Prior knowledge:
InterPro entries: STAS_dom, STAS_dom_sf. GO terms for molecular function: anti-sigma factor antagonist activity. This is STAS domain-containing protein. Pfam families: STAS. The protein is of the alpha/beta class. The chain has one domain: Transcription Regulator spoIIAA, CATH 3.30.750.24. The protein is 40% helix and 30% strand. It contains four helices and six strands, in the order βββαβαβαβα. Helix 2 links the parallel strand 4 and strand 5. The radius of gyration is 14 Å and the shape is globular. The N and C termini lie far apart (29 Å).
Amino acid sequence: MKLVDVTTQPARNDAPLTVLEDMDGHTARLVLSGEVDLATSTILRSALYGIADANPDELIFDFSRLEFLSAAGAVAIVTEIRRRRPARTVIVSNDPSVSRSLTLLGAGAGIEIFPTLAEARAALSSVRGALRVC
């Protein structure tokens, strides 16, 4: 797996955001580093539209490097999650404020949040295995 920088425009110096993309079969992973706020949410939206074109079966939002998530960033993520259903979407974050923000916006029922990437991948693998057995 190789992370590719899909940041399409430079972020402000005081609110940098980098979005890296990793495609592994039918699973896409977006790794966000820095801050997602009103000024950088357009960068996130651009990356989300790009990943949507690939139409992955599973999407992992990796927030383990994220320093700040504003309401504008959370809205962009919730909008993408709702648009993608029924595709499987998970979030990697050990920051309780991320979970609270997404739950307040109504995404809590549609996503699972895992503290590590390994746990998120294991959960996706177990669902894939269960689907093959049925």
